[in-house]
Amino acid sequence: MKVLMVASECTPFIKTGGLADVVGALPAALSGQGIECRILLPAYPSLQPLLSDGNQVAQFDDLPGGYGQLVLVSSQGLDLLLLDAPQLFDRPGLPYTDPNGADWPDNHLRFGALAQAAARVGLDGVEGWIPDIVHAHDWQASLTPVYLKQSGQAVPKSVLTIHNIAFQGRFGPHVLSELGLRGDWFHPEALEFHGDLGFLKSGLMFADRISTVSPTYAREILTPHYGMGLEGVLKSRESILSGILNGIDTGTWDPSSDPALNRGYNARSLGRKADNRAGIAERTGLDPEANGPLFCVISRLTEQKGLDALADAVPHIVNRGGQLAVLGSGQAGLEQAFVDASQRFAGAVGAVIGYDEAFAHLLQGGSDAILIPSRFEPCGLTQLYGLRYGTLPVVARTGGLADTVIDANVAALNEECATGFVFDDVSSSGIEAVLDRVFDRFADKKRWQMMQRAAMRQHVGWDQSALEYAQMYQGLSE
Length: 478
Ligand code: ADP
Ligand code: GLC
Hints:
The chain is of the alpha/beta class.
């Protein structure tokens, strides 16, 4: 079976969050199920150097936004179809925003072009390679199922995966004609979302299957609190909606062979984490002699992640003798809050503002616990990395966090299966309460290590989820 993945990010080429990790890791897992994937990605500046190694396999004169060619190239074990349309994608800044952080004004054309190129590959193939399934990810790829249905052809079938419903791709109705979409579909049962064109909404209406990245989030988005206005649309499509948990790339994230660590370790040599903690202290100015628990945060700094509440709970960590190392970037106010904390509590709090893949690995390798107090979390990957590194996740009970971390309650501790700490109240007092539980557990070294070992035993790879995707594809192509 052949699957065309369509996405706006893919590790290790271009990443702003977990979407990239999933798109980059899933194809290898699916190949174990006999599925051959190609990934259609925009040729952003970071991908431009690959173009000269590849072959042009298609060109289009009439994409939204004009001309584009497709270049097929293999890199890092992945087969990529790069949409080379320099007028749309070869620009500085991040994939969705300009260097000042504002959305690119032509994002509808940029991602309309991506979706239309995907539909053309789906319908006509490239050089005889014709996908059975086109699998689109998030709003940026969400017009793909629409263009496929607009063609009137029954195949290929489409899957749309929601990684985060907070990002919906909403544009004024005037863009409809620029995108070559059917005007008579501009109504609430098809493309219209409250007077606008909704990319994600449209994809949800036309995809043959919808998935999201954890079973709990699949239920949550049917409710007004989590559905962010799309709960009604999803309710109407509930029979084709499912939740498939993300896995992680257990090769890239392996504490015994991770090149970013000062020292590798496994479940029998947890003491070696100390060398990694020393590396964190060196980088962030934390007191290297401290022996309370070291907490880390590796995150986009946004409301979603509950880090405003955590910022208020920082004094509690320090008062109880803990340390905190933060790596993140995002909202200016949150960046400032953690920089301020690192100055106020010098030696106990360290903050690195920015994006640093290697330091993210070192933090997992040297911290005792990772804090993820999200208000919503479709899946979350950093708790999975934490489990794999024996860095116990302290997580809010929501979405994929609730599905992957086993709380250290009495029963789970007695059964030796607790892998972290789960709490309900995302507020500074809720966080302080769960931190108290963490400090109490940390004082009992034997039990802490027992939890670390249970965490490291947990299956966090892609095997089971790849099987579920394969079954979904199979069901569609029968
Ligand atoms: P989301 O996709 O909502 O941001 P996830 O937990 O699914 O959340 O994925 C976040 C990914 O981005 C993880 O791989 C995490 O390690 C990485 N990450 C987040 N912030 C940073 C940062 N500042 N530096 C390096 N990696 C980061
Ligand atoms: C989104 C979500 C995150 C999820 C990731 C990958 O960015 O916020 O929870 O893990 O996508 O699916």
